[in-house]
Amino acid sequence: MGKRGMPEQKISNYIGVTSVDEYIEKVKKLGGKIIMPKTVVSGWGYLAICVDTENNTFGLWERRQECEVMI
Fold first, then answer.
1. Cα(38)–Cα(11) distance, rounded to whole angstroms?
2. Per residue of the chain (71 residues), what is the pLDDT tens digit?
3. Pairing mode, strands 13-16 and 45-51
4. 8 Å CB contact between 57 and 50
5. pTM beyond cutoff 0.85
């Protein structure tokens, strides 16, 4: 990992959640922002992109239950 503040290094973590809608509300309640609202990823699930209070970007990922059967 690079030193904090190095603009050329961009890492985004994606967190698997049971409900993107539920966790979007938690992010907002804790002072974070939603920069890409819940979006359908056709055939796979749902994704939202957020920013925390320290300006770190992260994603919320909800797998569609129908996809679990196909795996």
1. 20
2. 556 666 666 778 999 999 999 999 999 999 999 999 999 999 999 999 999 999 999 999 999 876 555 54
3. unpaired
4. yes
5. no
